[in-house]
Amino acid sequence: MKRFFCFAVAALLLFATVACVRPPEDEKVNGTTTAALESTTGPEETEFRAFDTVERADYNGYTFRILYPQADQCYTDFFAPELNGAITNDAIFGRNLMVQDALGIEIDIKWQSYTQVNTDLQTQVTSGLADYDMYGGHRTSLALSYGGYLYDFYDMSELNLEGEWWDPAWVKTMSYDGSIYTLVGDISISSLLFVSSLCFNKQLFEDNNLEYPYELVHSKKWTYEVLYNTIKDYGNDLNGDGKMTYNQDRYGIVGWGTEAGYSLFYASGFTFVSKTLDDKFEINVNAERLNSIMDRVFEIWTTSGSYFNNSGTTAEHPYPFSVFTDNRALFCDSVLSKIGTFLTGMESDYGILPQPMFDEFQENYYSYTGYTIPVTMVPANCPDPERTGRIIEAFCTASYDEVTPDMYEIVTAVKNARDAESSEMIEIIIRNKFFDPAHWYVIQGYGTLSRDIIASGNNNIASRLKTIEKVAQKNLDTITTAFEELKQK
Question: Does the predicted model carry a pTM greater than 0.85?
Answer without folding.
Answer: yes
